[in-house]
Structure to design on (576 residues):
């Protein structure tokens, strides 16, 4: 056992001791209009959530008091989690002439299975309120990467508590997993560059690697050639996904979902990139 | 965010399992299934087909009736789809002369904002902006000038309450610009430089330009107000719904040519990690929509 593993073992015993503290949950008093509007398009589709929990590697223990056995209660975390998965699984238009990327890319990034996008991962949840989500790479060779989403994506009064922003975080955290698979160092500030710097106004900053539309075949977003010409950063993948929800989603996606996606994309695009703002999307026309 | 703290705890969890201190399996697929007594077996394609399109509720009445009418209209508009935007616009146009309806929209916006339901507030702000009324724009201007919160939850150095309000104010400033009125244009131009949030300043620039067909004259006019360090925003690439690759890529090429400084540096490699031992291979096709 080396020094790092020794520390991990000691920490594990500490964590085990703190286990009694588990049981806290996010605010479970309701859901945003965007969550409810999307929910109404499926009315709690059982076949889907029975597929989703496996596709995302969910573990019942993580979600037990968060709707695991009450999967149709949209006020709870698990139903909100699978509602966001439903959006990215069925809601994209996949128009090669207009979309940044396709369903294959967004599913590959979000879902648990090992692929070109990332090694195996699973989705957990945390009660933290100081993050939207986290990515924790495996330590032991037999361990699994972990994506956790946090209360600011579930609390009904939080601005990112909507299906597009939640799914957008699956992209962001999934892209940290992509960097681990492809051996990319994106910085030491939570996997980002320190900030503020350049046009980035927050603590964790990325670069935007601009690319045209139709430049990546659907399913090829994971590709990089080791240069800035063919590459994505976590915030960029998130912005491009949100823009595709806003402008390139299926006809039946409710406007509340599209508009919250555009608002998140546009605010993220002007505050998280060192080399100037990312694309803007949505329409400046109010409705 | 990549978490070091949670990585340690994750590793710790694995160690606990190894030592047999925890019961229960963590293997994929070994868990119990989620469930609900209310689950539906009807695929969404049938649920969606059952929703009647093009039936917006009316906007009318005075006092409490107007308030109820606006509430139900905002709820309908949130769940409406792109092909119903014309229906919403028609109803909004026909109600633009009703001061009680406009007043009710302002109350709905403030109520949704106060309750923290940003998605509902965003919808209501968009609808009021689309009405293009003097009183509505006056409210939107006041809304944009509301001081940003200074306390609350900080994520990655960003105060969430501030960002939440700024997103709504960005929607409001788009509504003001859409009126295309000299008096309110002055407010938009003022906010281009003066608003404390870059989220609002960026939207004010974009909306001002878009409402003038992105003309050279509009660019010259707004340029005087843009902060020096934000001049790049004047050329920012905007993707609009339905835009083809050809037009978008042409704009992007011109942007990158005019601003070579936005070229990102080469990505940095890091030490490879050992390959995973047990890849998770669940590859079942999602249920048919």
């Amino acid at each position: 056992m080396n020094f790092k593993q020794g520390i991990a073992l000691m920490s594990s015993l500490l964590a085990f001791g703190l286990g009694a503290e588990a049981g806290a949950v996010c605010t479970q008093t309701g859901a945003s209009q965007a969550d409810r509007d999307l929910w109404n398009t499926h009315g709690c589709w059982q076949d889907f959530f029975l597929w989703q929990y496996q596709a995302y590697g969910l573990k019942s223990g993580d979600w037990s008091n968060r709707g695991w056995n009450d999967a149709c209660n949209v006020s709870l975390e698990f139903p909100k989690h699978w509602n966001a998965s439903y959006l990215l699984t069925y809601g994209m238009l996949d128009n090669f002439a207009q979309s940044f990327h396709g369903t294959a890319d967004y599913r590959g990034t979000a879902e648990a299975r090992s692929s070109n996008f990332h090694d195996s991962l699973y989705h957990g949840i945390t009660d933290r309120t100081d993050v939207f989500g986290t990515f924790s790479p495996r330590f032991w060779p037999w361990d699994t990467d972990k994506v956790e989403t946090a209360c600011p994506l579930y609390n009904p009064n939080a601005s990112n508590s909507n299906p597009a922003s939640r799914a957008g975080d699956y992209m962001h955290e999934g892209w940290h997993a992509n960097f681990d698979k492809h051996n990319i160092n994106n910085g030491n500030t939570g996997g980002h560059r320190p900030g503020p710097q350049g046009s980035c106004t927050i603590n964790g900053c990325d670069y935007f690697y601009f690319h045209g539309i139709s430049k990546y075949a659907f399913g090829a977003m994971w590709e990089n050639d080791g240069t800035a010409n063919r590459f994505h950063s976590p915030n960029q993948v998130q912005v491009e996904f949100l823009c595709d929800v806003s402008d390139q989603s299926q006809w039946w996606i409710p406007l509340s979902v599209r508009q919250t996606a555009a608002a998140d994309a546009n605010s993220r695009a002007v505050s998280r990139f060192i080399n100037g703002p990312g694309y803007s999307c949505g329409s400046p026309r109010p409705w | 965010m990549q978490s070091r703290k949670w990585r340690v705890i994750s590793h710790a969890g694995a160690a606990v399992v190894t030592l047999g201190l925890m019961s229960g399996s963590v293997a994929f697929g070994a868990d119990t299934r989620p469930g609900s007594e209310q689950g539906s077996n009807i695929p969404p394609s049938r649920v969606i087909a059952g929703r009647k399109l093009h039936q917006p509720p009316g906007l009318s009445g005075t006092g409490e009736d107007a308030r109820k009418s606006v509430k139900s209209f905002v709820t309908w508009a949130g769940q409406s789809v792109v092909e119903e935007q014309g229906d919403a616009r028609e109803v909004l146009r026909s109600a633009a002369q009703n001061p009680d309806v406009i007043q009710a929209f302002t109350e709905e916006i403030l109520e949704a904002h106060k309750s923290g339901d940003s998605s509902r507030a965003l919808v209501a702000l968009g609808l009021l902006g689309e009405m293009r009324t003097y009183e509505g724009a006056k409210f939107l201007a006041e809304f944009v000038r509301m001081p940003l919160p200074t306390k609350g939850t900080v994520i990655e150095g960003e105060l969430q309450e501030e960002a939440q309000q700024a997103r709504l104010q960005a929607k409001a400033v788009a509504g003001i610009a859409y009126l295309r009125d000299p008096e309110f244009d002055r407010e938009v131009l003022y906010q281009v430089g003066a608003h404390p949030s870059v989220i609002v300043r960026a939207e004010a620039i974009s909306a001002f330009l878009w409402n003038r067909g992105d003309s050279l004259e509009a660019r010259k006019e707004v340029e005087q107000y843009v902060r020096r360090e934000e001049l790049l925003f004047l050329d920012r690439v905007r993707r609009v719904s339905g835009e083809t690759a050809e037009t978008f890529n042409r704009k992007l090429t011109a942007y990158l040519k005019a601003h070579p400084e936005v070229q990102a540096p080469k990505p940095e490699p890091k030490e490879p990690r050992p390959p995973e031992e047990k890849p998770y291979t669940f590859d079942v096709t999602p249920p048919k929509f």
In short: Chain A has a mean pLDDT of 93. The first strand of chain A starts at residue 121 and ends at 126. Chain A has one domain: 29-271.
